[in-house]
Here is the input.
Amino acid sequence: MSLDLSRVRFDRAGRTIIDGVDATIPAGALTALIGPNGAGKSTLLHLIAAIERADAGELALDGRSLPDMRRRERARVVALSEQQAEVDAQLTVEASVLLGRTPHLGAFAAPGTADHLIVAQSLAAVGASEFASRPLDSLSGGERQRVTLARALAQQPTLLLADEPTNHLDLGAQFTALDLLAALARDGLTVVAALHDLSHAAAYADHVVVLEGGRVVAAGAPVDVLTAELVERVYGVRAQVLPHPVTGRPLIAVASAASAMPAVQHASLEASERA
Ligand SMILES: Nc1ncnc2c1ncn2[C@@H]1O[C@H](COP(=O)(O)OP(=O)(O)OP(=O)(O)O)[C@@H](O)[C@H]1O
Here is the structure.
């Protein structure tokens, strides 16, 4: 299901955080949402998931307004994977992932065998089966991250939003999570992942949307968007974009963050060199 954002605006505390976002997120593809800290990535995911309501604009999934959908119906089609502080830390991993089934259960209905099977499959998909019976608050950051993604998978959405899904994960687990998201997209799921690692975005995304200051400053195929010029302009970092030796996808090699340093820092460096 394709997602269309049109002139989306969101203000908070007197500031415009999302400032007229227009974007088309392709169906059955992995879209990377990238941009510097504070660009508005998490906020935009919250607006799509209707956790927050936009002050203006439209957010539509296959032509249907997401904010206007009934909550329960929306929860059957959209899942947001983010590390949530509010989930009861005493819950077991299994019970927490089972919460993902809630939108699919009838009123007052208990989860059935099929729901437990989906939970087990979701835990297996993220490599979290072995800690299924442990309380959430006994998990490491990376283990918790996997459980968070498993809960979103258990929701069996058609649109999966993942906020920094590789956060806290070790190198192998990062690629396992990205492989999983890419495989889900190939199977028809529309995936939007906020990512910080541009090489991850380049390696895995079919489409990239770059946010800066609450605005879309570039969007398109990774090879067209992730240029050295864009990296320097948006992140203030000098980089070389090389072809990955195996995949040929862009690989962002950072040569220097010098252009990101404030002038005062240069001055103090020079002073310390003279001393
Ligand atoms: N409750 C709030 N009150 C005021 N400003 C807020 C609030 N929540 C977020 N913001 C501001 O909105 C802007 C966008 O924040 P958001 O978390 O969406 O950015 P992000 O791109 O996800 O950043 P990061 O990469 O650091 O996670 C930031 O400037 C942030 O300070």
Remarks:
- The chain is about 35% helix and 25% strand.
